[in-house]
Amino acid sequence: MKKTILTFLLVSPFMLFAQTVKELKVQNADKVKVDHKNVVAIDLQSVSEIAPGSSDVDIKNKKAKNYTYVELGRTYYDLQTNSSPGRRIVLHSDGTVSAVWTASPDAGTGYPNRGSGYNYSDGTNWMTGRDNKIESTGRSGWPSIMLMEDGSETIIAHESSTGGFLMSKNTSKGSTSFSTGSAILDDKTELNVNRVPIWNRSAASNGKIHTISNYWASTASNVPVVTRNGVASPTTYSRWDVATNSSEVEHMMLPGYDSSLYTNGGGDSYAIDVRDSIVAILLGGLGDPVSLWKSTDNGSTWTYTDIDKLPFKGPRRDAELILSGDTMSTNDGSVDVMIDASGKVHAFWGLGRILGGTDDAGDSTFFFFPGQSSLRHWKEGDSEDRPAGAIIDMEGDQALTINSETFSALDANGNIPNNLLSASRTGATSLVTMPSASSDADGNLFVVYSAPVEGALHFLNANFRDIHISYSTDGGETWNGPQNITQDRTEECNFPCAAKMANNFLHVMWQQDATPGTALQNHSASAGTHPNDVNRMHYAAVPVTDILNNVIGQNLIGVDEIGKSAEVFVVSQNQPNPFNGTAEAVIYLRSGSKVSLTVTDVLGNVVNQGSLGMLGAGNHNITLDANGLTSGMYFYTLSTRDHRVTKKMQVK
């Protein structure tokens, strides 16, 4: 029986009722109400999610961009993911940062020069001129970056023509000299079977590289659908041993992953994280369950958890949806997974909504409601998920007006749907989508995600997207937000990715260009709605103090700029530590100030003191001089007129 997905296109504008509250337990946050006979009103109100006696909190407002964006590189290939962001930025223990993305320096037919873009920050400066791919051969994409135990970096990207993955290595982090070998894990173990595994997500720990991927199929290219355990185009798990440079496991079906759970896999509807010997794999998909596989022995054995308890699974789903006669909450295929310092797993996904039905041929299918505006979170041990993100009510009227162009897709013939000026949805994702999670040494949790901005319209009527953030200080029990990191409103900021670990800063990258949506998915040749133009990969280091003090701002329409409630003064730990001679620390100032440095011993005696002069807003490198000091523990204090921060340093 043929399976299709039909989208309920809502007229423009439509309203999503919401409140701006500190804890994202939002009454009616997911209710869709439009005056259209073919649209069902969706009310996901859950009494358990409404905080008794909750009320609005003070809204932090700001009209300027929060941070100076660093341009990592440029690309004409503008689809960084089909749904889930992946692992594309890494914060190293010494404060340096590496980032990767799918790059193409030109817009040639088929993007023949497509590959992995790479950039690196030494803690102060990023490299320039990083528009070309690092691979010397092949047409690759969807890179994952990993720091190896010997200090080198490995980037794994799929070889899109024949399948498998290109492994590129440098000798030390920051080196732009990469060696790329032949494709690995190409799944050509069976004769006369053309399998094309692509869309990898990879992570490294304990001398192992753990990879999950999916199978591509194309009738036009004579690439048949791979079916295993009754699942068409399934997601598989592979493990690579770094010491022997060989595979230990290739394209294994995870235990219990079969047609009783899924009828189809999906490119990018999955995520992976590793921490020491723990491996966590999260699978989702529009209309499918959110499933977790966890291993505590480097991927040798696995336990399965049904996270969202979706009642309709596998081949029976569509027919049972029809019989239920009601809409069903699901995920939109954009998921992320994170292991915290205690070994507990956290799962995130964009909320999806479906309804059972039949298509014109009478085949069972389901209808998709793309106008969902909630990010969901679950932590290990929970019985239910909770809200962790939403769209900001910019006008403050407890209603969200998002135009239909924002969540509509081109039709099967590549044309714009009737009565619309454009279409800018990415795949089958919802309004709030593409979560990417992070945590810091204090146990704070962060999740960035993509969401449209009310009132920020392109001239073809689609809402621009910005990168938003929510945070939790209690291990994920409650979430605070949302806050708008990018606050651009004149360009599209999409495909966010945060480094899994944060220090004094949350390290975030995203793609930005002038038009909502992508040329690859949303360009109508007849209407010329999204020409193939250059896109900029951007990075920002967002001070954690800003996030936790709720002072990033929301850029509300019609509201004058008001002062922030906290001045930010952040000091990094000196590197190296312990040290002799000199070491460096980085300070961040929100506004210019005179800064002084004081060094004391463990008894409080001042051993060095002086003024660093007037420093402007932004990052500054500070040199600590230990010459003349005996071995032992010392404290250095950096002070402005209103603030001071003290750190320990060890002199060898």
What does this 3D model show about the protein?
With 652 residues, the protein is mostly beta strands. Among the domains are: 1-84 and 366-566, no CATH class; 569-651, Macroglobulin (MG2) domain (Immunoglobulin-like). Helices cover 3% and strands 42% of the residues. It is built from 3 helices and 42 strands. The strands form 11 sheets. Strands 1, 22, 23, 24, 25 and 26 form a 6-stranded mixed β-sheet that branches. The longest helix has 8 residues, at 317-324. It starts with a strand and ends with a strand. The relative contact order is 0.13. Residues 1-5, 7-64 and 555-568 have low confidence and may be disordered.
Features:
Immunoglobulin-like, single chain, disordered N terminus, globular, six-stranded mixed β-sheet, five-stranded mixed β-sheet, mainly beta, 652 residues, 42% strand
Ordered list of secondary-structure elements with their pairings:
Blueprint: E1 5-7, E2 14-17, E3 31-33, E4 70-75, E5 89-91, E6 97-103, E7 115-121, E8 140-147, E9 153-159, E10 165-169, E11 179-180, E12 197-205, E13 208-215, E14 227-228, E15 231-232, E16 236-241, E17 246-252, E18 270-275, E19 278-283, E20 291-295, E21 303-306, H1 317-324, E22 327-339, E23 345-358, E24 364-368, E25 374-379, E26 386-390, E27 399-402, E28 433-440, E29 445-457, E30 463-472, E31 480-484, E32 492-498, E33 501-502, E34 505-513, H2 519-522, E35 535-543, H3 544-548, E36 569-571, E37 582-589, E38 593-601, E39 606-615, E40 618-625, E41 632-639, E42 644-651
Parallel strand pairs: 1-24, 28-33
Antiparallel strand pairs: 2-3, 2-27, 4-35, 5-6, 6-7, 8-9, 9-10, 10-11, 12-13, 13-16, 14-15, 16-17, 18-19, 19-20, 20-21, 22-23, 23-24, 23-25, 25-26, 28-29, 29-30, 30-31, 32-34, 34-35, 36-37, 37-40, 38-39, 38-41, 41-42
